[in-house]
Amino acid sequence: MNKDAGSRFPGEAEILTMSLADYGERRWPAAMHGLETLTMSPYQAGWRLRVVPSIGHVLVRKVTRRVVNRALHCWIADECGLSTVKNSLAVLVRVLEQAVRDGVLDANPARVAGWQQEYQRAQSERTTPRALALPDVQALERLAATLVQRSSDGYAGWGDIVRFAAWTGTRFSEVSALQAQDIDMGTWTWQVQRFTVSAPAGLDDRACRGRHQRVVPLRPAARELAAGRLEAARHTPVARLFTGPHRSRFTAAALRDTTRWDDVVAELGHEYLRRQDLRHTGLTWMADAGLPLPLLCGAAGRPPQDARRYLPPDGPVRSAERPGEPPASSAPARTTGGGRTAFRRPPAG
Question: Any one Gene Ontology biological process term (predicted)?
């Protein structure tokens, strides 16, 4: 074991209960030994602003490749710059390399490959998100039905989870954390305010922050999926509307593995479709149906310049506030048209 570079080496018993944040602070001089002064500043920022808030609570001996990948994907989703992600990952590599030298880990789980391609894909999503949407309702139904058919447990709930995520443009982690009290049946809107994560003690719910906390309008197809569940939970506000086969929380990874997601989307000709890409389907369909831009921004949790990319290229852009018109309602009236539901403003006065 390495006991160099000016910090007291923690004992073996102490390491077993030490979080990554505590270990990094204790072994920082050893981990950063030989680093140039100019490089130290961005590394410190990456550690303090991204690594510690994301996974600093995880026991250092339990940091795995999956934990690192989850943090990396969060940084990319939060639109951190390429150099920011690179520096954050680099400092994590150094700290975990020290853990390997200290005998805490057998291998360094932060030495991941291919994340640059993931970053470029995220950049592409932000510029052309409509290209990642399913083409129509029939494609969604085929996907949901095939996932259930191919699942190892035959759980029909997987199909409803996929349908609801697509119609609402939300993530599976948010669907897992959805409670009856989050839906306002008067306006048929969903206040997205928590999501499910994998924690050291198992699955847990955490509060959404910033733009991830938002209001999503429920279109008729989503209402139908939620209505029966809301009726059953009318006396239990904290009841979950969508659960895994064991009537509990679920993760996107569990859905992927159980339903053989990767194989199914390839067979159906949707090789581009990752699990979280269903949000692009929902937001694209909302835009095609005429959801006003302010409400689309709210549903997406994105600024107008990003939400505009979901608008149909040959369709009129609905102005947020035209002269003489009332502000857009948080629960716009809806009228059916064709295979999708069209949103319209309520009449003035």
Answer: DNA integration
Cα–Cα distances (Å) from 45 to 18, 75, 232, in that order, read: 22, 13, 48
Q: Is the same domain home to 77 and 197?
A: no
| Half-sphere exposure of residue 179: CA atoms within 13 angstroms, side-chain side | 14
Q: How many angstroms separate the CA atoms of 199 and 89, rounded?
A: 21
Q: What is the pLDDT of residue 210?
A: 82
Alpha-carbon Rg for the chain in angstroms: 23
Nearest to 221 by CA among 140, 134, 309, 307: 140
User: What DSSP state is assigned to residue 114?
Assistant: S
Selection from 66, 60, 64, 47 nearest residue 103 by Cα: 60
Alpha carbons 296 and 313: distance in angstroms, whole number: 16
The DSSP code for 5 is: S
Assess whether 174 and 266 both reside in one domain: yes
Distance of CA 199 to the CA centre of its chain: 15
The series of mean pLDDT values per 10 residues for the chain, 349 residues long, is 48 79 94 88 91 92 90 80 88 95 92 81 72 92 97 95 97 95 96 87 87 92 95 92 93 90 92 81 94 94 90 61 33 35 41
Q: Are 137 and 28 contained in the same domain?
A: no
In angstroms, rounded to a whole number, what is the distance separating the alpha carbons of residues 210 and 19?
Answer: 26
Does one domain contain both 154 and 263?
Answer: yes
Same structural domain, 239 and 92 = no
Please tell me whether residues 40 and 89 are part of one structural domain.
yes
CA–CA separation, 325 vs 148, rounded Å?
A: 46
Residue 337: predicted pLDDT: 34
Which neighbouring-strand residues pair with 333? 344
Q: Model pTM?
A: 0.64
What is the distance of C-alpha 128 from the center of its chain?
18
